[in-house]
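hey team, just a heads up i'm posting the complex here instead of the shared drive bc the drive is being weird again. everything in one block, sequence lines first with there labels, then the predicted structure for the whole assembly after. its four chains so it's a bit long, scroll down
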Amino acid sequence: MTRTTILHRVPFYETDAMGIVHHANYVRYLELVRIAWMDEHDRPYREYVRDGLHFSTTRVDLRYVRSSGFDDVLHVMTWLEWVAGASLGMGYEIDRDGVRVAEGLTEHAMVDTSGRPRRIPAEHRERFRGLARASGGSRTRRGTVDRSR
Amino acid sequence: MTRTTILHRVPFYETDAMGIVHHANYVRYLELVRIAWMDEHDRPYREYVRDGLHFSTTRVDLRYVRSSGFDDVLHVMTWLEWVAGASLGMGYEIDRDGVRVAEGLTEHAMVDTSGRPRRIPAEHRERFRGLARASGGSRTRRGTVDRSR
Amino acid sequence: MTRTTILHRVPFYETDAMGIVHHANYVRYLELVRIAWMDEHDRPYREYVRDGLHFSTTRVDLRYVRSSGFDDVLHVMTWLEWVAGASLGMGYEIDRDGVRVAEGLTEHAMVDTSGRPRRIPAEHRERFRGLARASGGSRTRRGTVDRSR
Amino acid sequence: MTRTTILHRVPFYETDAMGIVHHANYVRYLELVRIAWMDEHDRPYREYVRDGLHFSTTRVDLRYVRSSGFDDVLHVMTWLEWVAGASLGMGYEIDRDGVRVAEGLTEHAMVDTSGRPRRIPAEHRERFRGLARASGGSRTRRGTVDRSR
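-- predicted structure starts here --
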């Protein structure tokens, strides 16, 4: 299984005056599950950081389907959609009790500590290729990624 | 002029350990400029809130072009892309010293305090129609909005 | 045992450009462990919320002893220091690998949904009294609470 | 005048499900006004950062007197309470329409980029001494600072 799911119990400080989770917080949930995915499928992200490498976020596209609130337990799932020489794309689904709350994608470029683009180290890129193939990606979401830009 | 620009001076607490603004914060910048846009072109958002109405965010799509850092002054600009009976779309450009930092779009659905969809009150919808026409929208960005979903 | 400890693994989005956890985030950690303490020793906080009651925060006093960084696992511990008719005080210690990172206290007043002070319901106040006695409080920290204000 | 005041208009994303500003955000307001104070009375904080120096926060003590909500305009005021060789203390008052919302203090230690304590550069320390004398400090708040630790 090449997908990773974390449970996130919504803290009070992530809610807003509409009584629901503020939409900007979901972008953070995507980061939480990405870190967990790397733990599980690649290597702890802190090891990239120690090597002076970061997966800089170049795109976030999130669709909010239903709201969630304080103390809800969210299932946040991610998988690798695609990988290129110096970038990769992840897909996401966020559910609560089996009902879709949000879905989206992010894109990332590998950079060094001064922000310059770097190729993903070969061994990791190879592993990512296998993972992207195995996860199958999601045709629908892939279609929303505009690679021509 | 139907566009609104705010200046945002980056606080230290919006930076992360890469030494740059954490990408999730840009979603908040979009909210800041939306509020300013409503002040300028429609009515203060707090008046919608007092009437028990909210523009719930249903989509955020952000492309990060360059990083920004502590104490940078960002120009965050927004305009109305389109409006429908109960929803609307906004476009955004974020620049620093005339250089593009990020660009994106958001979509919103009008809801009441219990989260049920509501039509945008007629007089505001009418004004929004005029604003969307006048701003011209951005063909490129509009093309990335998948309305068929 | 009347103390509650949670583990918090530091996400990247809680770090700042000093390369460490931004100090404002620790205030959130206190909330996380308070919620866990209520689960364990009183009742889930969401049940207070459903009854239209909140423990509004009236004071936060935090001393930062050492920094922590991305992916550190923090042990965040809390206990009830004291309880009065409509308010209570909690103590906190945050450690990493057995080393003190921060310590502090918070004070809270029970309010209803319109923010008016309310007495803590008798059965809960009684339970809190027992918990405060059992935890013993911390003389040192108690000394820093200025109750005369 | 040795005090600095900024206006902060509360964004929606700083509210919580109680319908008010979440208490953790006030810690950020203190940082915003500290930066403005340095601009006005010392030098832009980014210049310290460029020199590899930071005023690390070692204590935050905040008392919340009244709540505030979306779109409220807060007056956030700060002054220098005291300065020592490698640390300093600031006082704060936050008002809305002339009514006290919160008040507090913070303490800071100068550190280098690896977190080691550093003396405040002599010329700045001298200026700070003058500012602390001139602001007079606030006896009441000063009393709550436990310097014996």
